[in-house]
Specification:
Number of strands: 14
Order of helices and strands: HHHEEEEHEEEEHEHEHHHHHEEHHHEHEH
Number of helices: 16
Structural class: alpha/beta
Distance between the termini: 39 Å
């Protein structure tokens, strides 16, 4: 479940080298087939609101809160309901009432992933600990509920948000329709709960960062109030693909992975210092060498390859053979080849014997779990603790949505052409108090940390209003408890900044 949210990005990134490196006719994992299962539609539109009372220990203190599960019939082209969307709200008891407390609206990516990773493994008041049959729920001491009220959103087709029988909900399975649907869920929740005057923050991860910025764009187009803050985790916002750029933005991450596996001489440097050195090289000599292309002299090519080798651990001869340009598989299959190992892509720290990587790419990634985490435990939690009985099994991951996703001409027309950073720039121009937050893992090869930073900088986003954070983690920063603790601390600080910036 945790790493499933970037399957769309991985599928888009599969290249001929991946197929050449490992058998393209290899089997798909069983979890993939489950994630491709048809959706179970709802029999009719419903608008239940289920409320329960709870107490959890968060940050060492007891926090009393109300959980509100909300069903919202979602309109189709004819105005009639075509789906029921579900959100899970947590409202803490606070002196003077909740009106002035911030409300954080949280969603994952995929785009066919539910909110469950951030909901039940990162930010919600209850947290799944352990794996498989040993997994259980406990109070989440890292939750943000002590600082803000939380609403976790399952977009249509994910989680418990399902289409209605014999109705066409496909309008929600594309960039614009999805963003408008999420914006509608936010607007209706605020109105129904008397929170239209509260500070609002969007939090999205992976494709959820694209979703968050598309929500800003759709909100602006509709001339509705913009949120007060946007937190983007493991950014996938476009504008970092193509010749030169894709190589430059990836190099610091490859250097970090090499540092982790001690495939280079660390020289006493921390991962932060090694990343910074690789970033300076990528922005300077490496970018200049790539820009020269075939006019680059052999002597300079050799010099650049030697510096690359010292940073990312691959042989100079291989780097020269590849003309200084690497795809992910060039790196993942060679950095530990002497040990017979390959690395993960969602998390470069993960390894597996190359000989045992028998699944079809990209599912051969040793860091991909594909929703293997416990959907049954989620269903039990929703029913027994929140009083919400599901009409059909909870869909942590729905890859059927990914494969039918419409990228919309307005949003670039394809995954490779998407460009979302300008929407953050426009929103920040329109609302000078709006604040941003970015966070990513040093070891995430799928969405490299510098790729997101590059996209925002190139779009002209005022970076003095963006709080940027890097973590010693992979794609899902919260997967490691140390990463979750650091992320929680940073998001607590960010929420305080957002509230302080409001007029």
């Amino acid at each position: 479940m945790r790493r499933a949210l970037s399957v769309a990005l991985l599928l888009a990134a599969v290249c001929p080298v991946a197929v050449r490196a490992q058998d393209g006719d290899a089997p798909m994992p069983p979890a993939f087939l489950r994630a491709m299962a048809p959706m179970v539609p709802r029999d009719a539109a419903t608008d239940r609101v289920v409320t329960t009372e709870h107490v959890a220990t968060i940050g060492g203190k007891k926090v009393a809160y109300r959980a509100v599960v909300t069903e919202l019939p979602m309109p189709g082209a004819d105005g009639g309901p075509v789906a029921v969307a579900v959100s899970y709200g947590y409202i803490a008891q606070a002196k003077g009432g909740p009106a002035k407390r911030p409300v954080l609206f949280v969603f994952n990516g995929g785009p066919g992933a539910s909110s469950s990773p951030l909901h039940l493994q990162a930010l919600g008041p209850r947290r799944i600990v352990g794996k498989g049959e040993a997994a259980y729920l406990e109070d989440n001491r890292f939750s943000l509920l002590d600082a803000a009220d939380l609403v976790f959103i399952d977009p249509v087709g994910t989680g418990a948000s399902m289409p209605i029988k014999d109705r066409d909900a496909s309008g929600y399975w594309g960039v614009g329709g999805d963003a408008r649907g999420v914006a509608l869920m936010i607007e209706r929740w605020l109105a129904a709960n008397g929170r239209t005057g509260s500070p609002v923050v969007l939090i999205g991860e992976s494709y959820g960062t694209s979703r968050a910025l598309a929500v800003l764009h759709e909100t602006s187009n509709a001339k509705k109030p913009l949120p007060d803050g946007v937190a983007l985790l493991s950014l996938a916002v476009g504008d970092s693909d193509g010749p030169v750029v894709s190589d430059v933005v990836k190099l610091p991450t490859l250097a970090s992975v090499a540092w982790y596996h001690q495939a280079i001489d660390r020289g006493g440097r921390s991962v932060e210092q090694h990343y910074a050195a690789a970033l300076a090289f990528a922005q300077g000599d490496y970018a200049l060498a790539l820009l020269k292309g075939s006019t680059l002299s052999p002597a300079t090519r050799r010099k650049v390859a030697e510096r690359m080798s010292a940073l990312i651990g691959l042989p100079v001869s291989l780097l020269e053979e590849k003309n200084l340009r690497l795809d992910n598989y060039d790196f993942m299959l060679n950095i530990l080849a002497a040990k017979g190992l390959r690395t993960g892509q969602l998390d470069g720290r993960a390894t597996r014997a190359i000989a045992d990587s028998k699944l079809r790419p990209p599912f051969d990634d040793p860091s991909m779990t594909l929703g293997a985490s416990s959907a049954q435990l989620i269903e039990t939690y929703l029913k027994s603790e929140l009083g919400y009985g599901l009409p059909s099994p909870y869909r942590s991951l729905n890859l059927g949505i990914n494969f039918k996703w419409s990228w919309d001409k307005e949003y670039g027309g394809s995954y490779r052409s998407m460009s979302f950073a300008p929407y953050l720039k426009a929103a920040m121009d329109a609302k000078p108090t709006l604040r941003g937050f970015t966070g990513g893992g040093y070891y995430d090869i799928t969405t490299p940390v510098y790729a997101g930073q590059f996209a925002l900088e190139q779009a002209g986003v005022p970076m003095d209003r963006v709080s940027a954070h890097h973590y010693a983690a992979g794609h899902s920063v919260f997967e490691d408890e140390a990463g979750l603790a650091a992320l929680s601390e940073d998001l607590h600080a960010f929420v305080a900044q957002v509230v302080a910036a409001r007029p």
